[in-house]
Amino acid sequence: MKVWTSLRTSKNWKDLKKPLASILHLAVHIGSAIPLIVGLWGFWQRNLGANPILEITHRTGKTAILLLILSLGVSPLRQLLKWNQINKLRRPLGLWASFYALVHFSIYVVLDYGFQWKALLANSLTNVFIWFGFTTGLILLLLSITSLNYFLKKMGENWKKLHRFVYAAGLLSAVHYIMAVKPGVLRPWPYALAMGVVLIFRLPPVQKWIKRPA
Question: How many domains are contained in the chain?
Fold first, then answer.
């Protein structure tokens, strides 16, 4: 009876994998767009608090790192659940993360500093966390541009090597968030912990354990 139930459950899960992955693909786009819509509406209605620019900067930054965590979490989830169909979630999550990172940086440059490059440079020299964020953004922008199938075909194996820099982007984004807040503020640490977990899955010993024969 247990064997039959196990086989039946396994078959049901196998049948659900593809349609559920398609639903999740749509949910990724809808869910990723919601913070943007809510933020724009709040900015328009002027209900983002005393410092709306700072608030929207924080929101876009947190959304970017959350989506990056989810993107990096796709591969471990695929391996653990034997669910290859969810691989297609990795690209949209990564692209949305890059988008929010770009918006995050643009708000800082355009709305916060109004293209005052001297002031921006002076601030970056005294706040090292800005360089961590800037480097993260550059990596994500480069990976977004080269995520097109055209570059995948042209670059071959070099494409995979380039896109491994996403792990560096994940680490840098976590450090950026931790350094951007005052000492003792715990808000970045759940993000950093989650990022650490998904990055640990890339370590060779962990991969060896996951791929061990059942």
Answer: 1
Contacts for 80-88: CB closer than 8 Å, 24+ residues apart:
80/210, 83/17, 83/21, 85/17, 85/18, 85/20, 85/21, 86/21, 86/24, 88/21, 88/25
Question: Cα 187 to the chain's mean position, in Å?
Answer: 17
pTM score: 0.91
Left, alpha or beta for 203 (phi > 0: left; psi -120 to 50: alpha)?
Answer: beta
> What is the mean pLDDT, run by run of 10 residues, along the chain of 214 residues?
48 80 94 95 88 92 97 92 91 97 95 89 91 96 92 88 94 96 91 96 86 70
CB 75, CB 167: distance < 8 Å: no
The answer to whether residues 175 and 189 touch, using CB atoms and an 8 Å cutoff, is no
Q: What is the domain extent for residue 203?
A: 2-210
DSSP-H helix ranges across the chain: 2-45, 52-81, 90-106, 117-126, 129-145, 149-155, 157-163, 165-180, 189-200, 204-210
